Fold this protein.
Amino acid sequence: MTATDAEPTGARARQTYYWRVRNARTRHRPESSAHRWHIQPGHPGGAYSDLGHELEPPAHHAPTLLSRSRPKPRGHEQQFRGGCLTCAWEGPVYPGSGHGDGDNSAIEDAHDHAFPGWRELPPITRARDRRQTQRNLTRWTQLTSQYPLGWVDQGAPILVWSRHRREPHLPPHRGSPRYELRVDRPPTHRDKRATDQDSLF
C-alpha cells in the first residue's frame, strides 16, 4: 500500500476512504470495501443516517459507531469500535454479531469520550416513556435539568432501562437526535432478598 493509499484514521476520514474503495478510486477491489473501517449505516455520519452528513465537523465531540468485516477461515467476523465525528479518536475493537453484541460496548466507549460521566445521567425507567418524555416539555425539562450544562444541545444520550439482556442501543434519528442507551435496571428489594436467601443454602 502506498503512502497516498494508506487507510486513514478518524471516523470521518475512514468513511471517505471507505467510499473511495467502494467506488473503485483506489487500487483495492471495490468488493473489499466492507473490510475497511467505516461508519455503521444508520449511525451519525453514516451513508444511511437520516440526519445527513454535514460538511463541517461538529464544534464538540460527537459519538458514532465504526464497523468492518474481517475474513476468517469460516466466513467473516464483524468488528466494532467507537468513533468521533470531530476528532481522530477511536476506541478499542470489539468482535460481535451486532444487535447489542460488540456494538453496544463500542457505542459506550464513544460516549465515554464525548460525554464523560454519562452513566450518572437520570434514566427513563419505562421504555414506552422514551418518546413521550421528549415530546412533553415539562417532563423533558425535568429530566434534562440534571444534565451538565450544554450537554443537551450537544446531543447527550437518553438513558433507558433495559427490557432484556443485551438490548441494543439505538442511534439518533429524526424523532430523537441523540443516542438512546440501554442501562441495567437496578436490583429490586425482592431480588436482594432472594440473593440473601440463596446465600444461606
Summary: The chain is about 25% helix and 15% strand. The first strand starts at residue 38 and ends at 39. The beta strands are 38-39, 63-71, 76-84, 94-95, 123-124, 158-161, 180-183.
